[in-house]
Amino acid sequence: AGLSWQIDRNHRLYGSFSVAHKEPTRNNYTDGYFTEHPKAERLFDYELGYTFANSWLHAGANFYYMNYKNQFVLTGELNSIGEAVTRNLEKTYRMGVELEAAWKPVSWFQWDANATWSKNRAKDMMVTLEDGETKASLGETPLSFSPDFIFNNILTFQYAGFKGAIQSQYVSDQYLTNTGFKEMMCQDENGNTTYETLLLKKHFTTNIDLSYHFSLKKLGMKDATVGVTLYNIFDSLYDNNGWAAPQYRMADGKLIAVNTWNVRDMDAAGFAPSAPFNCMAHLSINF
Q1: Are the beta carbons of 146 and 94 closer than 8 angstroms?
Q2: Staple partner for 181: which of 15, 132, 177, 257, CB 3.0–4.6 Å?
Q3: Angle made by CA atoms 136, 82, 272, in degrees to the nearest 5
């Protein structure tokens, strides 16, 4: 259900409330813990927004609050064939603000930007300690794979058949688990204490896309576009995905994450690195 108010030709306000449900999949049953029975996810979503638009500027802000019951959340673990595992968390929420703007001062140039600040949390998070029986409360913790800040920026230039775009993106830190731990205690080959990160670290990347569109009517075809895309032009080194399965113990009255499986990160954490600078040529033809 929603309401939209077109204040005048440039200004608009809107608000909405929606309910969504998601049933468990087969994997939720086969990958889940034997002591837990998967439940349907329920979402109550509240949104309020404002947009402004004229001939050369479009801008907007959207506020949202997503209240979940039994949300299916990535745990950071993998199943026996390497698929990401999800499980129900009874009480979770996502809230934040989304900002967007598009500025076109002249016909051949446009600047698009959008950003999201968000707070993504699990309430009353519990973990089981390494003895397999004792449970500990962590309170409110960050949700896995949910950055607090994302920013995208695109500069587009067009002239005749030429089009060029510079696209940049910033993504803040992401947790690999839902516990809020940023690292876990490990041991190296010599038994010395080391620490392995439980984060996908923040990163900033920039891509450039260049293309030219031209007619092919003389050859009996409509048109064609040829171009090249340059990815990660500044060689940013970052991991785009990962997994982690730490254990938990009490040490000196403090709850810590540990790796008891093997040496360092073996069988307890892994990361998928992104490529450094790379490029791709592309050609499309319309008949």
Answers
A1: yes
A2: 257
A3: 90
Backbone angles phi, psi at 45, to 5 degrees: -115, 125
Q: 3-class DSSP state for residue 80?
A: coil
What's the rounded Cα separation, in Å, for the pair 176 and 265? Answer: 13
133 secondary structure, DSSP code: S
β-bridge mates for residue 276, sequence order = none
Confidence check: pLDDT of 277 > 60:
yes
Higher local confidence (pLDDT), 259 or 54: 54
Angle at 262 between CA 261 and CA 267, to 5 degrees: 65
Residue 219: what residue type? L
The residues with which 195 forms a beta bridge, in sequence order, are: 185
Six token digits for residue 178? 């839902």
Helices (H), the chain: 26-30
Average pLDDT value over all residues in the chain: 93
User: What are 87's two structure tokens?
Assistant: 């499980």
pLDDT category of residue 267 using cuts at 50, 70 and 90 = low
Which pTM was predicted?
Answer: 0.90
The Cβ of residue 198 has, within 10 Å, a number of other Cβ atoms equal to 22
Nearest CA to 156 among 166, 146, 148? 166
Full strand arrangement of the beta sheet holding 193-197: 193-197, 183-187, 254-258, 247-251
Please give the C-alpha separations between residue 83 and each of 58, 137, 159, 267, in angstroms, as whole numbers: 41, 27, 45, 15
